[in-house]
Amino acid sequence: MEKRYPFKFLDAYRKEDFAFFFGREEEIEALYRMVFQTKILVVYGTSGTGKTSLIQCGLASKFKSYDWLALYVRRGSNLIASLDKALCDASDGVFEFAERLEPDARDLPQKIEAVYRASFKPVYLIFDQFEELYVLGDAREQQQFVQTVQKILEVEQPVKIIISIREEYLGHLYTFERAVPGLMRKKLRVEPMHLDKVESVIRNVGRQAESNVSLQAGEEPEVAEAIFEKIRGKNSLTIELPYLQVFLDKLYLHLTGDETRRAGAVVNLTALQEMGDIGDVLRDFLDEQVIAIARALEELPNTVWKILSPFVTLDGTKEPLSEAELQDRRPDTSQVLLTAVLQALVKGRILRYTEHDERYEIAHDALAKQVAAKRSDEEIALLEVQRLIKSQVAMKAENREYFSEKQLGFMERYLSKFRPDAEEQAWIEQSRANMQAEKEERARRDREKLEKAAEERRLREKVAQAEVERSLRRKAEEARFEAEKQRSEADEQRSRAEQKTKQARQLTRLAVILSMLAVAAAFWAFWLKQKAETATAKAKINIEKSYQSDIQRLELEIEITNRNIASFREYEAGDDVILYENSKKDSLSRLQDSLEKRLQSIKK
Question: Is the whole model's pTM more than 0.70, yes or no?
């Protein structure tokens, strides 16, 4: 029995490699059950988990040849066109593929029927690396594919759809799921490999009789664990399969030095220890290959990196390109050098060439990430320009938007570094013409705006001048009215003053008369006063004489009263006489008091 090299490096495992495919037994069984439960299912996982190998090798090996017709479809330049080509090729000549500018999906149900009738096998449409539809395709292509799937699910023939997609793009299926509600009903996540599965892969590969790689007897668990520890990196409990495959290939070459990979090799702990700290396996592998190719072609490594860069999108995913498309991306590179580098990259297992569509692509997404990490700012800017142009041209003409002046300015310095196709160049020229037209239109509008502003300014000045004139006339009228008012008030005041002067003269004359009367009255009053004072003096004399007479008379009466009081005697005639006498005495005493008070009053 001829022994085979058991490792696939960065290639996916196929059905014929099933003897060396280990570590995915549970996922194979789960996927096999699902395909009988639904017409469409999704397989997803992070890059490097082995989704393609699981389907092409693990699932395919569960079917007999008569119940499995798998059509593997990659997007290429258009996913619907690629599906159409796969169906035409499998229709046994019933349909011939005709490449169209606008792929037509209306006859796909008839083509599926033709494929089924050609083989009478259930048809499995496997859309591998489905994220390319969202990374490289536009909204129109995505919508057309959703409509295509809706038609496929309605056909009567036994046809199933398997979609393989990277986990980080799973959210892009939201719109797809709204149109096809059963899309996510059955889905399988492919987990990264843990130590137990890595050990299963390494130990089982070493046990296979047809494998030219074996493990040192008695060291199998330690060897498997040592390999896992070298690859997994810090703070990780899993590994990516591309890292495992590249490391195992590097280990084999370390043991044998046989690049034909035919010699036998026994993996042991000593050989693992000799390899030392391997660092980033994929990065080191890529760097080594690029340096080796550059040295062989007597070019700088940067030249090889620039040729490799277009095969990776800005998002770090693979972008298949034909040699002609690559030449358009790198017009500054000679055709001879471009071909030589491509062949060297294929030989170095960095690129993979597909004959049926004559395209090159990065061997694995894990390598694509490494290429993206090597890009300079200049390379990134160039790719951004290319993506900007393609994203617009990919749409229908009525839905496109012209590039803005800012975008055209950004593109200008990079347009000489790649070769846009005829449609792209035409759209750039149309955008420039539109930009120039917009500039001229803006200039015209600016002129009109300036003229309008000048006219408005002149009109405002006229209005302002008219307003000033009206204001001056109004103020003059108000001043005239105020002057007239003041003259009227002055006339009135003068009239009042004249009247008051007249009144003053009359009052003066009256005052003079009154003064004369007052003087006469004063003389009259003085005379009356003198006369009154003389009369008063005479009256006082008379009063004094009267008072003296009254005083003399009262003094006389008092004296008589005193004498009467002194003359009373007490009679022995009895109590009545005494009482009478006392009463009369009292009366005289009161009279005496009265006379004395009157006398005092007169004296005062």
Answer: no
